Amino acid sequence: MSKLLQDAVGEFSKLPGIGRRTALRLAMHLLKMERESVADMTQAIARFRNEVRYCAKCNNLSDEEICPICADPERDRTTVCVVEQVADVLSIENTHQYRGLYHVLGGVISPMQGIAPSDLKIDLLVDNIARGGIEEVILAVSTSVEGETTLFYIMNRLRQFPGLKVTSIARGIGFGDELEYVDELTITHALRNRRAVE
């Protein structure tokens, strides 16, 4: 195999979810592309990595100091949805069901991976709430052990704001799941978050 091809495959396989076979397919696809298209792609990736910023208000990705969501005067500024990663913002935005603001933590608390509360943007969230105007915080973090630990930690930090409504997204059994194959934690969440049948 060509050394150049080996290097390209090696770099592609560093990406999450990309094994060596997929990396090889991507590298071979690049050879079929026009040189200008490949140059545009590499330039866009380099510009993204070097020029992207994090919003000073919510820690979302942005081209400017303040992201478009925080700058949008049409957004509901009384509600903040707390998520782990930028990808979570995109997932929620794609539903077109939420019109409030966001706060991106940048991960979850994970002692095993050396991620402490101070490594996340929890202090920024608390500072934003302390400025006033926020009435509800929606916690939308994963249902993993690390996510639950993060949820518990944030809820304890937010107890200093007695009038603040703190909610969590509903968790439970997915559509089409069979009950006998669902784990106990998921069933527990489903029972706690039950609602009236309409």
Protein model, in words:
By secondary structure, this protein is α/β, with parallel strands linked by helices. The chain folds into 2 domains: 49 residues, Orthogonal Bundle (Helicase, Ruva Protein, domain 3), CATH 1.10.8.420; 96 residues, Dna Topoisomerase Vi A Subunit, Chain: A, domain 2. It is built from 8 helices and 6 strands. Strands 4-3-5-6 form a 4-stranded parallel sheet. A two-stranded antiparallel sheet has the order 1-2. Helix 1 crosses helix 2. The longest helix has 17 residues.
What are the key terms here?
single chain, 198 residues, alpha/beta, Helicase, Ruva Protein, domain 3, 2 domains, two-stranded antiparallel ribbon, 42% helix, globular
- The gyration radius over C-alpha positions equals 21 Å
CATH third-tier fold name of the largest domain: Dna Topoisomerase Vi A Subunit, Chain: A, domain 2
Q: What's the total helix number? A: 8
Helix and strand element order: HHHEEHEHEHEHEH
CATH architecture of the largest domain: 3-Layer(aba) Sandwich
- End-to-end CA span: 62 Å
β-strand percent reads: 5-15%
The structure class reads: alpha/beta
CATH class category name of the largest domain: Alpha Beta
Strand order of the largest sheet: 4-3-5-6
